[in-house]
Amino acid sequence: MSQNAASIPLVNRLKFKHLALLVALDDARNVHQAADAINVAQPSASRMLGDIEEALGFLLFERNARGMQPTPLGVVTLAYARRALADLTRFAEDLDAKRKGGHGQLTVGAIMGAAPDLLAMAVAALKTERPLLHVCILGETSDQVVQLLHRREVDLALGRLTNPLQHNDFSFEPLARETLVLVVRAVHPVAGRAAVSLRELMEWPWVAQPITSPARVLFEEELARAGLGTPANLTECASIFATLQLLENYDAVAMLPESVVRDHVRGKLLVALPVEIGKSLAGFGILTRKEEALAEPAQRFVDLLRVYSHRLATEDNLAVGV
């Protein structure tokens, strides 16, 4: 029997609902919760899983006291199911948009902290050109957007590689660097001081990104260089919006991109402290999956990112007299 002939029964038996169940099981690791997620009864979900495992010829999960854990072949199958479901969902959404007279869809992963100006300019220009293009922006931190790119839940991402081996899977085109500042609310006791040290700030509460993010890694490196430990009073927060809300409501310190806090500083809600930090943070840029051509809307968006990145860099240089 040929390889193609051997795969026909499997292709015939796997359905959209099967893929949805596998993704739900991968997320929940519980049949009851997965059944609820795809709106079927638990017995039906159990039968579906049994049918899938019978068609594949191996178990996808080991059942034990800790719940359901994927087998090695299960890990491979679940990754495929997630990619296939994402592709099929995107295809259906794009087809529906075209049927209604729209012009496709673009889903972008973006680090909201590093590139709000650049992202907003490029999206605004794209939507001006193509009002009916459906644009969706996901993510907060680089580790999140890289995961979204890996899962094929976004067409491209604006961020950074987060480990040394990701260059094997993703292409990276640098666009810009970001200036990081330490900020506190305007009524913080250290606000307005002409000089303050990082060591002094360790006595106050801090809000920082999760340890998996490049900005947090850099923060810990800065502390190590200064001979300091991680602040004892620390709140981890991946959301830039939530971090800003925390800063405005109590006497915490945070390291954030200047572009994010600029309006808050101008509005006298936050104060930037006179502490130099974050000079070694790697620049952010465009992340795409290797050896995979971008759809036309995504390629146009990349072109706009390049244009506005160059424009912002030119304006910054003129502002400092370069």
From TrEMBL:
Belongs to the LysR transcriptional regulatory family. It holds the Pfam family LysR_substrate. The gene is gbpR_1. This is LysR family transcriptional regulator. One of its GO terms (molecular function) is DNA binding. GO terms for cellular component: cytosol. InterPro entries: GbpR_PBP2, HTH-type_LysR_regulators, LysR_HTH_N, LysR_subst-bd, WH-like_DNA-bd_sf, WH_DNA-bd_sf. Keywords: DNA-binding, Transcription, Transcription regulation. Residues 14-71 form the HTH lysR-type domain. PROSITE patterns: HTH_LYSR.
